[in-house]
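Anyone have tokens for ATP synthase subunit b? Sequence:
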Amino acid sequence: MELLTPGTGLIIWQLIVFVGLFLLLSKLAWKPIISSLKERETSIQEALSTAEKARLEMAQLKSDNEKLLKEAREERDKILHGAREAANRLKDEAQLEAKKAADRIIEDARAAINIEKQAALKEVKIQVAMFSLEVAEKLMKKNLADDKSQKELVEAYLKDIKVN
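Reply: yep, here.
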């Protein structure tokens, strides 16, 4: 039973050892333990704040990247739209130029045809005139083969000239 009911001397010695140990620990161990806990707390707090800053920066970078992508897409769309318009304009201009060139070629061909037609008509007229002269000459030779018919023709021409 002695273990269950300690003596007063034992309690005093235990109290003295406890108080001495408490004072010794408070002087030597508590300050380094508390300071290391505070350092750990501040380093954890700094790490959390750094992580939060990094998260905010990442969110900002992500929004900036999305903004840049959107601007790049808009710029690409503008460039493509401009290229399509330029291609259509060039195509329309080329078609217009081709139509003008075709019209010029057709007009030149018509003019050449008209010139050839006029030349052919002139040639036909010349040939008809030549044939007419040949026919008239042959008829005149046949009709004016004798002197009497020649004299009558000359007198008729002289009368015509005097009247006019």
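Residues 10-163 form one domain.
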